[in-house]
Each structure stands twice: as C-alpha cells, then as structure tokens.
Amino acid sequence: MEAIALAAVGIFIFILGYRFYSKFVAEKIFRLDPNYVTPAHRFKDGVDFVPTNKFVLWGHHFTSVAGAAPILGPAIAVYWGWLPAVLWVVLGTVFAAGVHDFGTLVLSVRNKGQSVGTLAHRLIGQRGKILFLFIILILVLMVNAVFAWVIANLFISYPASVIPVFIQIPLAIWIGHAVYKRNKKMLVPSLLALATMYIVAVIASKVDFLQIDLVQYMGGEGGAGLFGLGAISTAFFIWIVVLMVYVYIASTLPVWKLLQPRDFINSHQLVVGLAILYVGLIFTRPEITAPMTNPSADQSWFPLLFITIACGAISGFHGLVSSGTTSKQLDKETDARFVGYLGAVGEGVLALISIIAVITLFPSVEEFRATYSSFTASNGAGLGAFIEGATNLATGLLIPADVASTIVSIIVVSFAATTLDTSVRLMRYIISELGVEYKIPSLEKKHVATTIAVGASAALVLIPEGPNGFGSGGYLLWPLFGTANQLLAGISLLLISIWLRKLGRNYMVTIIPMIFLMFMTLWAMFEQVFTEWAWYADGSNMLLFVFGAIIFVFTLWIILTAVQALLKKTDPDFSGDE
Amino acid sequence: MLEKLKQLIAFYEEVLEMPHRTEIARELRDEDDLFLLMLYSEMIGIPNPVYYYTLELYPYMIERFHDWHLRMGMEKSPMTGIRCC
Hints:
The complex is a heterodimer.
Chain A: H1 3-29, H2 39-42, H3 54-65, H4 69-77, H5 82-109, H6 116-124, H7 126-157, H8 162-180, H9 187-206, H10 214-217, H11 231-252, H12 259-284, H13 301-308, H14 316-324, H15 335-359, H16 365-371, H17 375-395, H18 401-437, H19 446-462, H20 478-502, H21 508-533, H22 542-567
Helix pairs in contact in A: 1-5, 1-15, 3-15, 4-15, 4-17, 5-14, 5-15, 5-20, 5-21, 6-7, 7-11, 7-18, 7-19, 7-20, 8-9, 8-12, 9-12, 9-18, 11-18, 11-19, 12-17, 12-18, 13-20, 13-21, 14-20, 15-17, 17-18, 18-19, 20-21, 20-22, 21-22
Chain B: H1 2-39, H2 51-54, H3 58-71
Protein name (chain B): DNA helicase
Organism (chain B): Planococcus salinus
Pfam families (chain B): DUF7990
C-alpha cells in the first residue's frame, strides 16, 4: 500500500471531523454565540487581552503546541504495527483532542479567560489547585528528563547537528536584540538566522572536523571515557551537563532575550519540516513496508498505546495553552471552533507524518522487526527511525541524505530544546508557587527554584540505567510523560463536562473521552507500576515505581473527585456566564 | 498571484509577531505604571516634592487611573478625591 493513500485517508477523516463533528459540538453542545462579548473585548488591555484574527491566532496556537512530542510518541508506537497507531492518532484527534482543545478554549472564554488551573481551583477548592500544581510539576519534570535525554542522544548519533544547534543561540540573541532594542521587523532576521543554521548544517555534514563527535574523541564506541565509564556513557554525561547549564541560564534570562527569538526560528522550522515531509511524500511515493499489526508483541498494545502516543492524539498540555493565552485573544466566540479544533488537527497531521516516515523506512518487514524487536527496543529506536525515515522522504526533494538527516535532527533538537527551556521555566514558577503555598520563602527565589528544577531534572535523566548502560534508560520515562499528560487532559475534560452539566447540556462528548482516557491511563499505569517496575518484578526500578505510584494515586484521586463533582447538584462558584 | 503571496507573507509575519507584540505592550505598560507610581508616590507614603504639580496631570490620567490602581494591587481607588470605583 502506498503511504500517500494512508496520509490522504487520515487527512480526509480530519476534514470530516472538522466539517461535521466540530460543527455539531459547536452548535448543539457549546452553542457558540457570535454576539458573545469575549474576554478579548471585555477586558481589552492591549497586552494579554487582544482581539486577534482567527487565522493568526490559529497559527500562533499551533506553533505553541506542536513540538517534539507528537513526533516521538508515534515513532515508538508503530511497534504494534501501523494500524493501531494511525487509528488512535486519527480517531483520538477527531473525538478527543479536538473536543478537548476546543472545549478548554470555550470554557475559558466563558469564564473570563481564566486558565484551567484557576478553574480547577474554583471547582475542587484549594486541594484541587495543589493537586493540579503537583500534576503539572510531575509533567514538566518528565518533559525535562525526556527531552534532555533526546537531545543528548541526537548529539551523539548526529554529531553534525551540534554546531548548527549551538549557532542558534547567538543568532536568537541577535534577533532578540534587533527586534526589541532596535525595533526591527522580525521576519527577515529570523529567516536569515534559519538560512545561516541550515548553511552551517550543510557544511558540517560534509566537513568532518565540524562534527562534534565526543564518542570519536574518546576512541570510538569501545573507547574508555571518564570516571571509568564507557565512551558513549561519558559523552551522554557531558551533553547532559552542558544542556543543564544551558537551560539554567536560558530559563533565568528574560523571555525576549533567548526563548522568544528561538521560537521565531522554530516556527519557520515547523513549516519547513512539515513541508519537506509532505512534499517529499508526494514525490517519493514510498510503499508501507512495516506490518499492519504486530501479533507477537511482547507487551500488549492495549492499553499501552494510549499513553505512548499522548501529543498527537490528545494532550493535556494543549489545554494549558488554549486556556492560558489563546482564550484571551479570541475575537469572536465562534472562532473557537477554528482555532481550537484545527489546532489539535494540526498536531494530528504532524503525528501522522511521523508514523508514515517510520513505516516507509525499512526495506522489508523483517528489517522493521529487527529494529522494533521489543517494546523496550522501540522506545530507544523510535526517534532514530523517524529521523532516518524523514531523511528518506526528504531525498525525494533531491536533498542529499547526510544533509537531510542533519537538518531533520536539528529540527527535532530545536523543538526539544525550546520545550526544555519552557518547561524548566514553568517548573521554576511552580516551585515558587508551592513555596508561597507552603510558606517556604526561600523557594520563591529565582535561583533557588531554578537550581531545584535543573537538579531534579538532571538527577532523573541520569539515574535510570537502561540495557545499554548509563544514559540509555531515559526513554523508560516516556510512559510516565504520556500518563501525566493524559491525566491533565482528563482533568480539563472533566471541568468542561461539569460546566456543560451545569448548563443542562449534553456532556457525553467530553465525559466519554474523559472516561476512556482515565480508564486507559489507570490500567496502563497499573500494569507498568505493579508488574514491571515494582520491587518484586523482573524489571524492578524503584525510581520509576515511586513516580508511577504517585501518578497512579493522583489518577484515582481525580476520578473520585470527578464522580463527587459530577454528582454534586450545584456548584455556586462554577457557573460561567451564560 | 503576487498579491496573494504578499498577503500570505503578511499573514505569516503577523503570526510570528503575536507574542512579540504582547511582550512589547507589557514592557510599555510596566514603564507607564512605574511612571505613574513615581508621579503619585505620596499615595504610598514616599515623599514627592513635586506632588502639587503632578496633580495637574490628573485630568489626562483619570481614564487609565482605574486600571492602574487595580494592577498595583489596590482594589479601591486609593484617593478619596477620585472615585473611579
């Protein structure tokens, strides 16, 4: 079967979902009102509350939510064959993610533009707020560890990407300076920066000494590293230290200096990446060589699939963006359908191409099976397979393979680095907020909070040892990341359901995905925690066990709260305005 | 065709500039707030030798005054003479 047909079917279903399902939800469930005065108009202040054109808002929303996660998850999940992964991405986007992103946006718009965190506070009280903070804390901690691991490994596998990625830092600072201090337009500088990065990437792919290959410097894979570690482990350790120093500095700088200009460049990269992959798909027209299903999987796809692909099918993180910034800038309430639902579809499209890149890579089913030999192996191999697959598609545009793989790895590293930067910053804020909550003033200090954030993330990424020695176990954290993300989505869906119930509307469209999601998350977590990681199991890992158990308890807690809140007849504090 | 391309570029640029515009507006607002605070520092107990003259700016500031005192964490107007809320 040609992969292009699969992409076409997927996109066709997305279009149907938008055309019919989102219309149904908008008209019959949320009953969007074009005359409703949105927070952007009601509290218009020219800063946070600004009515914005829906296309522009969608573009911004999409670039804020799309990152490395919708690439990594699907690239791992194809282990169970392409059919389950594609079905979950497509149906998850249409029935869960679309409604979730759209719903959180409408909920926030109808509640003065407040974020889901604040709404959880009003709904479940102070306990709800703390619970919410802890879940986000776990989520960002997982994000930090997983993405630091991703970047370190890409630097080791694709040494040509190191210099272009590091060049992005001074370029971003230059753009920040040009834009904010000299008041220049940003389109041209950011395009110039992107061009510089890619030119350097081309040169670095061709010139050996521009490839910062730490493993080679230590005498290749068998070489001896520092502190009695092997060469790869030492390289991994060095990259993690470098990254942690970088994020410490980056997350304490003002956002306009580094983080935002990086985002400008990354927005281009998102467009370039998606264009290369989809246009490449049209030109190369590859056949799908991976199996449709995997009957001999060592771990069942059910329910693990639903936490392996979080972003791309449904992601709680989107709710934070929807209700955090997007809802304050929505011009007309009816625009919410376009911005929210299509924002989720955009991410679904990215996840879909990630699956296609991997399932068209291998020449035969046997070779696919050799790489994706077990679930653990797939966790480690997924990202590499995506980069090779994307390189394959890019060669359709006559880009040489070595250059293409460098550029694709730069794109993935840039996404991961920005996510890392943002989430360390977020973690710092949360630690400070917990400091206020528990009256520990020292936690409110910027450098104390950042040190804790960076230290905890580094400890987490360095501790779990995998089968290939130090540093190879970071992917073990992936299911935990997925779970925390789904948990957050579950809370948001719950909030929307309670709100809809209060208004006397049909809340099945949100409660069904919520129950499905919570059920799968709980089941998957139970399986992982008590049969894989517990001290009596074969793959015993106390750290993962503790984290898993905490998340498990949180999930149970949320379900109990959900039942309680849904059964409660009236919530005087939580009406929203009609 | 060229017109469409120009529209596309303008759209793309606007998408890129959204967070940037917010940041600029926020910085500007912070500076304005600081300026107002300096003008009316007597209200929070910091002696201001030119207070008498800054009061003359009042008619020009009155509309923004309400937003300002809210942002400064004062729920009600701190001045008895000004009853904006």
